[in-house]
Specification:
The protein has about 400 residues and is mainly α. It has helices at about 1-5, 10-20, 25-45, 55-70, 75-95, 110-120, 125-145, 155-170, 175-190, 220-230, 235-250, 255-260, 290-300, 325-340, 350-360, 365-370, 380-385, 390; strands at about 265, 270-275, 280-285, 405, 405-409. A hairpin with a 4-residue loop joins strand 1 (about 265) and strand 2 (about 270-275). It starts with a helix and ends with a strand. About 25% of the residues are buried.
Length: about 400
């Protein structure tokens, strides 16, 4: 059995790699990894290297007790059980049991459409991008089959418009954004391959506004309180302070903090060079004095002696690199709790606070986007949206506007 041959830490690492390889996005992976990470921590705290059913059963019993006491809804209790079962199934079989393991493949395509889809999906794409493209491509071709179009010879702009209209009545705006995006990419491929008389670029260039939830930035006073509450005399505190400073001063994402390597820090030139996990883009950030001192204190005085290239390590033997961005969220949660702040695990709040501060300081949005390593200026919109102080200046007064029978004048 795999659970008897592989350590629980290695199982978790393999599980995270499998979720990434199958094309799940960053947020989806975090949700699925959270409970698995807590199970791993329980084993580590008890010094148990291999998956122990008694420890898992004890954890499940606590989860159920929270439900019976009214501290957890039935829906959430069921979701937690599914997350745990998914990890245990992988630990036992090495296979992923996803909510929709064949996303995009529910519809069986004709050999002709299947061949076209495979050619399109074989192009250079990120795994998560390919997953979305597969779902939309299969959905489109299946719709064409239902409408009696056995191949693309009679498909024109009218059919594309009808498909989009049909989707718009069933899907949310965020989904419609992706549908339009990948249909546009599909037709660019079809035109290039000589399978369509047009790429329909103009037809598919309309904008679909996506809905996005704006999370609040952590106030500067709360950040100072959180940093001040960290006990920097302990190894745990030195590690936490260094990680929090990377988020506070440089705005690094949790996934980039956990993957930060010793070789990424250029002490001579005062720079940190990383390949961002989310965008796969390189970014060079200044190694500020406060961040440098925090990293130096942790590396020299608290980091275990190990051959690992990653900076942030476990506090207890066996000394291995932190496995997931979820762990950085847990550290942030503990720091907030120690400071008496509303405890949450949204480490991204520090990045949002930095972005908002830059916008408030009058730094051009394009400059802020470059500092953050964002490939599009649109990525800075959430930081502008939480800048309520300056948004008020954009509001026009209604003085002098009279209401008449025909409306406003």
């Amino acid at each position: 059995m795999r659970t008897e041959q592989t350590t629980v830490t290695k199982l978790f690492s393999d599980y995270e790699a499998a979720l990434t390889e199958c094309g799940l996005g960053y947020s989806s992976r975090l949700l699925m990894l959270h409970r698995a990470c807590l199970i791993v921590h329980r084993h580590e705290h008890r010094g148990v290297e291999h998956l122990d059913q008694e420890i898992v059963t004890e954890y499940l019993r606590e989860i159920d007790q929270r439900f019976y006491s009214g501290a957890c809804s039935k829906k959430r209790n069921q979701m937690i059980h599914r997350e745990i079962d998914r990890f245990l199934w992988f630990a036992e079989t090495g296979e992923l049991k996803l909510p929709n393991p064949t996303k995009g493949c529910r519809q069986e395509l004709t050999p002709e459409y299947k061949k076209i889809a495979e050619a399109f999906l074989s192009k250079d794409m990120h795994p998560s991008t390919r997953n979305d493209a597969r779902w939309i491509t299969h959905k489109y071709f299946s719709w064409l089959e239902e409408q009696g179009y056995e191949d693309l010879s009679r498909v024109r702009a009218e059919q594309i418009q009808m498909f989009l209209l049909d989707c718009s009545g069933k899907m949310a705006m965020n989904t419609m954004h992706d549908v339009k995006l990948y249909i546009k990419k599909l037709y660019a491929h079809l035109y290039e391959a000589g399978l369509s008389e047009s790429s329909y670029h103009a037809l598919l260039s309309f904008k679909v506004n996506r809905e996005s939830k704006i999370f609040p930035a952590l106030p500067k006073a709360d950040i100072a309180k959180m940093l001040g509450a960290i006990d920097r005399t302990t190894a745990k505190g030195k590690r936490a302070y260094a990680a929090m400073m990377l988020g506070t001063v440089l705005g690094l994402r949790a996934c980039d903090v956990v993957n930060l390597k010793l070789t990424d820090v250029d002490w001579i030139n005062g720079e940190i060079k990383i390949l961002q996990s989310k965008t796969s883009k390189s970014v060079i950030l200044p190694l500020t004095e406060d961040v440098g001192e925090a990293l130096k204190d942790y590396i020299l005085n608290a980091r275990p002696t190990t051959d690992s290239k990653q900076i942030f390590m476990r506090l207890q033997a066996p000394y291995r690199a932190l496995q997931s961005a979820v762990t950085i969220g847990e550290i942030y949660h503990e720091c907030c709790k120690s400071a008496g702040l509303l405890a949450n695990k949204r480490f991204h709040s520090l990045r949002r606070s930095l972005g908002t501060s830059m916008v408030n300081a009058g730094i051009p949005v394009c400059t802020a986007a470059q500092v953050f390593g964002d490939t599009r200026i649109d990525s800075m919109k959430p930081y502008i949206a939480v800048d309520s102080q300056h948004l008020k200046l954009c509001a026009l007064p209604f003085d002098g506007v009279a209401v008449t029978g025909g409306g406003l004048q």
